[in-house]
Amino acid sequence: MGSELLNHLDGYLARGDQLSPRYSFTEISRLSRPLIKYDPDILWRRETKLLPFPLQKLRRKVKRFAELELRPIALELDKAEHLPAGQIHPKAQQALVKAAKAGLLTDVLPKPLGSSPPLQYLHSLAWQQSVRIEELARVCGGLMLLLSAHHLGVAPILLSGDVAAIRRFVLPAYRELKRGEPHLFAFAITEPAAGSDVEEGVGASQYRPGVIARKTRGGWLLNGRKCFISGGDVAKSIVVFAALEADGKRESMASWTPFLVKRDMPGFQIERTELKMGMRASGAAEISFTEVFVPDSHVIGGLRKGWAINRATLNLSRFPVASMAVGLAQGAIDATTEFVCKACIGGKPLISFQEIQLAVAQMNAETSSIRGMVWKNAKAMVPKQAEASMCKFHATDRAVKVCEMAMDILGNHSMLHEHGIEKSFRDVRLTQIFEGTNQINRLAVIEDMQEELLAKINHSMG
Question: What pTM was estimated for this model as a whole?
Answer without folding.
Answer: 0.94
